[in-house]
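fyi for ur records
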Amino acid sequence: MIVVYIILGIVVLALIVAIFTRKEYTIKKDIVINQPDSVVYEYLRFFKNHPAFNAWYMKDPDMKVTSRNTDGQVGFILMYEGNKAVGSGEQELTRLEK
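which gave:
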């Protein structure tokens, strides 16, 4: 009977943690690039340049990538399907700020 209470306690604890855990998150990383802001901005806004530095491309160089709309413009959507480490999904360019 004690084992049942322990298992029940673990389940309840997991549910409580799930209730208070954030459902969305942001990943942020800072690096120093010795180039003018305008050069960096023009390079990063184009998804075609991302294989040079994006960790997902490095985990699966054979990842299948398709896209819709114009690269570097708001509304561009990149869809990808990779190996088990990468998975599948999409990224959309929703806003550009200089």
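The helical segments are 2-20, 37-44, 55-59. thats all i got for now
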